[in-house]
Amino acid sequence: MFGKIGATELILILGIALVVFGPGKLPEIGKAFGKAIGEFKNHANQISEDVKIDLEDKKDKE
Question: Which residues are listed as membrane-spanning (predicted)?
């Protein structure tokens, strides 16, 4: 349904963010956003590992 963000869309988003938040706040917002994405990836990977282990345990019991 939705593809990856292209260069034009990314520039538009960054331009709007610059106008709304100003140049002083952008580094802080970028850092917070990066940390949030990193945490999300870590949790998603952990959930995937938990599900994989759970499925393997169920398969072994059969």
Answer: 6-24
Distance, in Å, from the CA atom of 28 to the CA atom of 23, rounded to the nearest integer, reads 10
Task: Please compute the mean of the pLDDT values over residues 21-36 and round it to a whole number.
Answer: 90
Is residue 5, in this structure, part of any structural domain at all?
A: no
Q: For residues 45 and 48, give the distance between their C-alpha atoms in angstroms, rounded to a whole number.
A: 5
Average pLDDT, integer, range 13-17: 90
Give the pair of three-digit tokens for residue 50.
């938990």
pLDDT score, position 2: 62
Rounded to an integer, what distance in angstroms lies between the CA atom of residue 17 and that of residue 24? 11
